[in-house]
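Sharing a chain and its predicted structure for anyone who wants a worked example. Both blocks are below, sequence first, C-alpha coordinates second.
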Amino acid sequence: MINLRQVECFYAVMRTGSVTQAARLLNVTQPAVSIALQQLESRLKLKLFERSAGRLHATAEAKDLLPDLAEIFVRLAAIERRSQDLAQGVRGSLSVAATPPLCDGFVVNAVAGFLRGRPDVRVSIQATPSSMVVDRIISGEVDAGVVYEPVLSAAVQVEEIGSASIGCLVPTRHRLARRQSIAAQDLEGERLITYLPQALLRPYIDRVMAGGPAAAVQTGASSTAIALVTEGAGIALVESALFQARPQRGLVMLPMTPATGLKVLLLRPRPAVRSRALDEFVRELRAVFAGP
Protein backbone atom coordinates (compact mmCIF):
# COMPACT_ATOMS: atom_id res chain seq x y z
CA MET A 1 0.00 0.00 0.00
CA ILE A 2 1.20 3.51 -0.80
CA ASN A 3 2.40 5.39 2.25
CA LEU A 4 0.74 8.79 2.66
CA ARG A 5 3.97 10.34 3.91
CA GLN A 6 5.73 9.25 0.73
CA VAL A 7 2.95 10.78 -1.36
CA GLU A 8 3.14 13.97 0.70
CA CYS A 9 6.87 14.27 -0.01
CA PHE A 10 6.30 13.66 -3.73
CA TYR A 11 3.53 16.30 -3.85
CA ALA A 12 5.72 18.80 -1.98
CA VAL A 13 8.58 18.32 -4.45
CA MET A 14 6.18 18.76 -7.38
CA ARG A 15 4.87 21.99 -5.85
CA THR A 16 8.21 23.51 -4.84
CA GLY A 17 10.49 22.11 -7.54
CA SER A 18 13.26 20.88 -5.25
CA VAL A 19 13.98 18.48 -2.41
CA THR A 20 15.40 21.34 -0.34
CA GLN A 21 12.23 23.43 -0.57
CA ALA A 22 10.02 20.38 -0.03
CA ALA A 23 11.93 19.49 3.14
CA ARG A 24 11.53 23.05 4.40
CA LEU A 25 7.79 23.01 3.61
CA LEU A 26 7.27 19.72 5.46
CA ASN A 27 9.67 20.58 8.27
CA VAL A 28 11.76 17.44 7.72
CA THR A 29 15.32 16.75 6.59
CA GLN A 30 16.35 16.57 2.93
CA PRO A 31 17.47 12.92 3.28
CA ALA A 32 14.03 12.04 4.64
CA VAL A 33 12.41 13.49 1.51
CA SER A 34 14.90 11.74 -0.79
CA ILE A 35 14.31 8.37 0.90
CA ALA A 36 10.51 8.80 0.71
CA LEU A 37 10.76 9.50 -3.04
CA GLN A 38 12.89 6.42 -3.61
CA GLN A 39 10.46 4.26 -1.64
CA LEU A 40 7.49 5.64 -3.60
CA GLU A 41 9.18 5.01 -6.94
CA SER A 42 9.93 1.48 -5.85
CA ARG A 43 6.35 0.94 -4.75
CA LEU A 44 4.86 2.41 -7.93
CA LYS A 45 7.51 0.85 -10.18
CA LEU A 46 7.77 4.22 -11.90
CA LYS A 47 10.56 6.73 -12.39
CA LEU A 48 9.17 9.99 -11.02
CA PHE A 49 12.16 12.33 -11.36
CA GLU A 50 15.25 12.70 -13.49
CA ARG A 51 18.25 14.52 -12.08
CA SER A 52 20.05 16.92 -14.41
CA ALA A 53 22.58 19.61 -13.57
CA GLY A 54 21.90 19.12 -9.87
CA ARG A 55 18.17 19.62 -10.24
CA LEU A 56 15.18 17.28 -10.22
CA HIS A 57 12.90 17.21 -13.25
CA ALA A 58 9.53 15.52 -13.08
CA THR A 59 8.93 12.74 -15.58
CA ALA A 60 5.83 12.58 -17.77
CA GLU A 61 4.48 9.89 -15.44
CA ALA A 62 4.89 12.15 -12.41
CA LYS A 63 3.10 14.99 -14.17
CA ASP A 64 0.29 12.63 -15.11
CA LEU A 65 -0.20 11.70 -11.45
CA LEU A 66 -0.26 15.30 -10.24
CA PRO A 67 -3.99 16.12 -10.77
CA ASP A 68 -5.07 13.06 -8.77
CA LEU A 69 -2.60 13.92 -6.01
CA ALA A 70 -3.85 17.50 -5.88
CA GLU A 71 -7.41 16.21 -5.42
CA ILE A 72 -6.29 13.98 -2.54
CA PHE A 73 -4.67 16.88 -0.71
CA VAL A 74 -7.64 19.14 -1.28
CA ARG A 75 -9.80 16.47 0.39
CA LEU A 76 -7.29 16.09 3.23
CA ALA A 77 -7.37 19.84 3.83
CA ALA A 78 -11.17 19.72 3.88
CA ILE A 79 -11.06 16.89 6.44
CA GLU A 80 -8.68 18.91 8.59
CA ARG A 81 -10.96 21.96 8.46
CA ARG A 82 -14.01 19.84 9.23
CA SER A 83 -12.31 18.16 12.20
CA GLN A 84 -11.37 21.58 13.57
CA ASP A 85 -14.98 22.72 13.18
CA LEU A 86 -16.22 19.58 14.94
CA ALA A 87 -13.76 20.19 17.77
CA GLN A 88 -15.10 23.73 18.11
CA GLY A 89 -18.75 22.65 17.92
CA VAL A 90 -19.53 24.57 14.71
CA ARG A 91 -20.20 21.45 12.61
CA GLY A 92 -21.80 18.10 13.26
CA SER A 93 -25.33 17.11 14.20
CA LEU A 94 -27.60 17.38 17.22
CA SER A 95 -30.91 15.66 17.94
CA VAL A 96 -33.15 16.70 20.83
CA ALA A 97 -36.55 15.54 22.08
CA ALA A 98 -38.59 17.42 24.66
CA THR A 99 -42.03 17.46 26.18
CA PRO A 100 -44.19 19.95 24.20
CA PRO A 101 -44.35 22.98 26.52
CA LEU A 102 -40.59 22.85 27.10
CA CYS A 103 -39.84 22.08 23.44
CA ASP A 104 -41.93 24.95 22.09
CA GLY A 105 -40.49 27.40 24.62
CA PHE A 106 -37.07 27.25 26.21
CA VAL A 107 -35.70 24.38 24.11
CA VAL A 108 -36.52 26.21 20.87
CA ASN A 109 -34.87 29.33 22.31
CA ALA A 110 -31.77 27.32 23.18
CA VAL A 111 -31.62 25.71 19.73
CA ALA A 112 -31.91 29.12 18.07
CA GLY A 113 -29.12 30.53 20.23
CA PHE A 114 -26.98 27.47 19.61
CA LEU A 115 -27.34 27.78 15.82
CA ARG A 116 -26.14 31.38 15.75
CA GLY A 117 -22.63 31.17 14.37
CA ARG A 118 -23.01 27.46 13.57
CA PRO A 119 -24.55 27.40 10.07
CA ASP A 120 -23.25 23.93 9.29
CA VAL A 121 -24.70 22.09 12.30
CA ARG A 122 -27.72 19.91 11.49
CA VAL A 123 -30.41 19.85 14.19
CA SER A 124 -33.38 17.55 14.70
CA ILE A 125 -35.91 18.61 17.35
CA GLN A 126 -38.98 16.63 18.41
CA ALA A 127 -41.90 17.58 20.66
CA THR A 128 -43.20 14.41 22.24
CA PRO A 129 -44.61 13.14 25.57
CA SER A 130 -42.14 12.56 28.40
CA SER A 131 -42.37 8.76 28.23
CA MET A 132 -41.48 8.83 24.54
CA VAL A 133 -38.59 11.21 25.20
CA VAL A 134 -37.15 8.62 27.60
CA ASP A 135 -37.67 5.84 25.04
CA ARG A 136 -35.88 7.84 22.34
CA ILE A 137 -32.92 8.46 24.66
CA ILE A 138 -32.66 4.76 25.53
CA SER A 139 -32.89 3.68 21.87
CA GLY A 140 -30.25 6.20 20.83
CA GLU A 141 -32.60 8.08 18.49
CA VAL A 142 -31.75 11.41 20.12
CA ASP A 143 -28.71 12.88 21.87
CA ALA A 144 -30.60 14.65 24.65
CA GLY A 145 -34.06 15.07 26.11
CA VAL A 146 -35.74 17.78 28.19
CA VAL A 147 -38.74 16.88 30.35
CA TYR A 148 -40.51 17.65 33.58
CA GLU A 149 -40.02 15.40 36.57
CA PRO A 150 -40.42 12.59 37.43
CA VAL A 151 -38.17 10.27 35.41
CA LEU A 152 -37.84 6.85 37.01
CA SER A 153 -35.78 4.98 34.40
CA ALA A 154 -32.26 4.01 35.47
CA ALA A 155 -31.30 3.64 31.79
CA VAL A 156 -30.89 7.39 31.30
CA GLN A 157 -28.65 9.99 32.91
CA VAL A 158 -30.75 12.66 34.65
CA GLU A 159 -29.67 16.19 35.56
CA GLU A 160 -31.81 19.04 36.87
CA ILE A 161 -31.35 21.94 34.46
CA GLY A 162 -34.12 24.37 35.35
CA SER A 163 -37.41 24.85 37.12
CA ALA A 164 -40.95 26.04 36.56
CA SER A 165 -44.14 26.18 38.60
CA ILE A 166 -47.90 25.93 38.36
CA GLY A 167 -49.31 29.35 37.58
CA CYS A 168 -52.62 31.02 36.83
CA LEU A 169 -52.84 32.68 33.43
CA VAL A 170 -55.31 35.56 33.23
CA PRO A 171 -55.97 38.53 30.92
CA THR A 172 -54.30 41.73 32.08
CA ARG A 173 -57.73 43.35 32.63
CA HIS A 174 -59.05 40.45 34.70
CA ARG A 175 -60.08 41.17 38.29
CA LEU A 176 -57.24 38.96 39.57
CA ALA A 177 -54.52 40.38 37.33
CA ARG A 178 -53.06 42.72 39.98
CA ARG A 179 -52.77 40.04 42.67
CA GLN A 180 -49.29 39.04 43.84
CA SER A 181 -50.42 35.41 43.99
CA ILE A 182 -53.55 33.32 43.59
CA ALA A 183 -55.06 30.77 45.98
CA ALA A 184 -57.65 28.13 45.08
CA GLN A 185 -60.46 29.99 46.88
CA ASP A 186 -59.78 33.10 44.76
CA LEU A 187 -60.94 31.17 41.70
CA GLU A 188 -64.55 30.63 42.78
CA GLY A 189 -66.91 31.68 40.02
CA GLU A 190 -64.23 31.57 37.31
CA ARG A 191 -64.29 29.34 34.24
CA LEU A 192 -61.13 27.30 34.78
CA ILE A 193 -59.02 25.72 32.05
CA THR A 194 -56.45 23.08 32.90
CA TYR A 195 -55.02 19.69 31.96
CA LEU A 196 -56.85 16.44 31.30
CA PRO A 197 -56.91 13.95 34.21
CA GLN A 198 -54.38 11.67 32.47
CA ALA A 199 -51.89 14.48 31.79
CA LEU A 200 -48.48 14.20 33.48
CA LEU A 201 -48.88 17.57 35.22
CA ARG A 202 -52.48 17.10 36.37
CA PRO A 203 -51.51 15.79 39.85
CA TYR A 204 -49.72 19.10 40.51
CA ILE A 205 -52.86 20.99 39.55
CA ASP A 206 -55.03 18.81 41.81
CA ARG A 207 -52.63 19.41 44.69
CA VAL A 208 -52.71 23.19 44.41
CA MET A 209 -56.47 23.23 43.78
CA ALA A 210 -57.47 20.99 46.68
CA GLY A 211 -60.81 22.29 47.95
CA GLY A 212 -61.14 24.72 45.03
CA PRO A 213 -63.57 24.82 42.10
CA ALA A 214 -63.50 22.19 39.36
CA ALA A 215 -62.18 22.87 35.89
CA ALA A 216 -64.74 23.66 33.19
CA VAL A 217 -62.38 23.08 30.24
CA GLN A 218 -59.67 20.42 30.04
CA THR A 219 -56.92 19.99 27.47
CA GLY A 220 -53.76 17.99 26.95
CA ALA A 221 -51.49 20.89 26.04
CA SER A 222 -50.27 24.10 27.64
CA SER A 223 -50.36 25.82 24.24
CA THR A 224 -54.06 25.02 23.85
CA ALA A 225 -54.83 26.35 27.33
CA ILE A 226 -52.97 29.58 26.56
CA ALA A 227 -54.86 29.95 23.27
CA LEU A 228 -58.17 29.47 25.08
CA VAL A 229 -57.33 32.24 27.54
CA THR A 230 -56.32 34.48 24.63
CA GLU A 231 -59.73 33.87 23.06
CA GLY A 232 -61.57 34.75 26.28
CA ALA A 233 -62.67 31.20 27.14
CA GLY A 234 -61.58 31.48 30.77
CA ILE A 235 -58.43 31.53 32.89
CA ALA A 236 -55.90 28.70 32.96
CA LEU A 237 -53.91 26.74 35.50
CA VAL A 238 -50.81 25.55 33.64
CA GLU A 239 -47.07 25.11 33.96
CA SER A 240 -45.25 28.43 33.72
CA ALA A 241 -42.34 27.67 31.38
CA LEU A 242 -44.05 27.97 28.01
CA PHE A 243 -45.57 31.35 28.80
CA GLN A 244 -42.31 32.53 30.35
CA ALA A 245 -40.47 31.62 27.15
CA ARG A 246 -43.28 32.91 24.90
CA PRO A 247 -45.02 35.77 26.75
CA GLN A 248 -48.11 37.21 25.08
CA ARG A 249 -49.39 40.74 25.21
CA GLY A 250 -52.63 41.03 27.12
CA LEU A 251 -51.95 38.06 29.43
CA VAL A 252 -50.19 37.72 32.77
CA MET A 253 -49.00 34.62 34.65
CA LEU A 254 -49.53 34.74 38.41
CA PRO A 255 -47.97 32.30 40.91
CA MET A 256 -50.26 29.96 42.79
CA THR A 257 -50.34 29.62 46.57
CA PRO A 258 -49.15 27.26 47.93
CA ALA A 259 -46.25 27.34 45.50
CA THR A 260 -45.84 24.18 43.43
CA GLY A 261 -42.41 23.81 41.85
CA LEU A 262 -41.58 21.64 38.84
CA LYS A 263 -38.06 20.41 38.13
CA VAL A 264 -36.92 20.52 34.50
CA LEU A 265 -34.66 17.56 33.72
CA LEU A 266 -31.98 17.08 31.08
CA LEU A 267 -31.77 13.47 29.92
CA ARG A 268 -28.82 11.82 28.22
CA PRO A 269 -27.96 8.19 27.39
CA ARG A 270 -26.25 6.07 30.00
CA PRO A 271 -23.36 5.82 29.48
CA ALA A 272 -23.32 9.37 28.13
CA VAL A 273 -22.15 9.88 24.55
CA ARG A 274 -20.30 13.20 24.50
CA SER A 275 -19.79 15.51 21.57
CA ARG A 276 -18.64 19.12 21.34
CA ALA A 277 -21.93 20.08 19.67
CA LEU A 278 -23.97 18.53 22.48
CA ASP A 279 -21.82 20.15 25.17
CA GLU A 280 -22.27 23.56 23.53
CA PHE A 281 -26.03 23.05 23.25
CA VAL A 282 -26.33 22.06 26.91
CA ARG A 283 -24.39 25.21 27.84
CA GLU A 284 -26.87 27.27 25.81
CA LEU A 285 -29.81 25.44 27.40
CA ARG A 286 -28.55 26.19 30.91
CA ALA A 287 -28.19 29.85 30.00
CA VAL A 288 -31.74 30.02 28.65
CA PHE A 289 -33.22 28.50 31.82
CA ALA A 290 -31.07 30.74 34.00
CA GLY A 291 -32.59 33.80 32.32
CA PRO A 292 -31.02 37.18 31.55
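Comments welcome. The mean pLDDT is 89.
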